[in-house]
Design goal:
By secondary structure, the chain is α+β, with helices and mostly antiparallel strands. The protein folds into two domains: 160 residues, Ribosomal Protein S5, domain 2; 130 residues, GHMP kinase, C-terminal domain (Alpha-Beta Plaits), CATH 3.30.70.890. Helix content is 36%, strand content 27%. Strands 1, 2, 3, 4, 5, 6 and 11 form a seven-stranded mixed sheet that branches. It has a four-stranded antiparallel sheet with strand order 8-9-7-10, sandwiched between helices. The radius of gyration is 19 Å and the shape is globular. The two termini are 23 Å apart. It binds L-homoserine. The site of L-homoserine has 12 residues, from helix 5. L-homoserine (HSE) binds next to helix 5.
């Protein structure tokens, strides 16, 4: 294979679960994400030269990008290697798909540098290897949105069946990231393994309602379907002022509110940018008053996914 080729890509941050869709729903954000530069080299090794933004291992066996590229190289019988640098924009442990952004960027870049043997959809299973390293579980609800863009439904994991839905134009997301770290692995461990049938009925009714709302641009239906009766009651305990934030944004006109991925970030949907900005002010006020540092983002649903820069 020809070496010496270079590429720079951007993979976005994402919101997984989207309230009722634990492990099966997600969407990416605009503006915030990871940048990755990669070059093909003759030696059959993976070299992570630098990681800027946050402190993460340079050892390719311990970094999500390393395991993604390694699996791709094995499957595609690639005998050359790659060197790369990462600029992290998504903070690890934020619940905004940090490992997924890096994993998606790595899968996308290595595919491009090797002549695009796979369609973007087929890169999801490689990026999922990164999630397995990062959290002990190969979920796709961050990596699939980060790679493909738009609102994503994972209808099935085995076999993998990913459905991309066109998000309504006026659907805006506000995400607040209070600066405490919640590890996905830990926040998965505390979940109950059994669900009462009554709760399951409520949850799948809401998933169906949310998907219908997305497909028909029915904002009111989106809002009333944004209920998570299974995961949120357990995980919200780890997030400072979760209940206060939720009731305050709902009063301010948000369509719905929930935990972003495994937390601690909290996201809302609003109809229109003005409403999303109002929600942003409410969220900011609560964390400012509490004296907790935070970042806050307002974005429409990213429809591009991972892109060449
Ligand atoms: N669905 C995953 C979880 C997303 O909630 O554990 C992790 O960001």
């Amino acid at each position: 294979m020809e070496t010496g080729k270079e590429i720079s890509v951007f993979a976005p941050a994402s919101v997984a679960n989207v309230t009722c869709g634990f492990d099966i729903l997600g969407f990416p954000l605009n503006g915030t994400g990871d940048k990755l530069w990669m070059k093909s080299i003759p030696e059959p090794v993976i070299k992570i030269k630098t990681i800027k933004g946050f402190d993460l291992p340079l050892d390719p066996e311990k970094n999500v990008v390393g395991v993604v590229i390694k699996k791709f190289m094995q499957d595609m019988h690639i005998k050359t290697g790659f060197e790369l640098s990462i600029r992290k924009g998504v903070k690890p442990g934020s619940g905004m798909g940090s490992s997924a952004a890096s994993a998606a960027a790595a899968a996308f870049a290595v595919n491009e540098l090797t002549g695009k043997p796979l369609a973007t959809k087929d890169l999801i299973k490689y990026a999922m290897e990164g999630e397995k390293l990062a959290s002990g579980n190969a979920h796709a609800d961050n990596v699939a949105p980060a790679l493909l863009g738009n609102f994503i439904l994972i209808r099935s994991y085995d076999p993998l069946d990913i459905i991309q839905l066109d998000a309504p134009e006026e659907l805006y997301c506000t995400v607040v990231h209070p600066h405490i770290q919640v590890k996905t692995e830990d926040s998965r461990m505390i979940l109950k393994k059994q669900i009462p049938l009554k709760k399951a009925i409520e949850q799948w009714g809401n998933v169906a309602g949310l998907i219908t709302g997305i497909l028909t641009s029915d904002y009111e239906l989106i809002g009333r379907s944004m209920k998570d009766v299974i995961i949120e009651p357990v995980r919200s305990i780890l997030i400072p002022k979760f209940d206060e934030v939720k009731s305050s944004v709902m009063k301010a006109g948000a369509l719905g509110c929930g935990i972003s991925g495994s937390g601690p970030s909290i996201f809302t949907f609003s109809q229109g940018e003005k409403n999303a900005a109002k929600v942003q002010r409410k969220m900011s006020h609560i964390y400012k008053t509490l004296g907790v540092d935070f970042d806050i983002y307002v974005s429409r649903i990213n429809k591009q996914g991972t892109q060449v820069l």
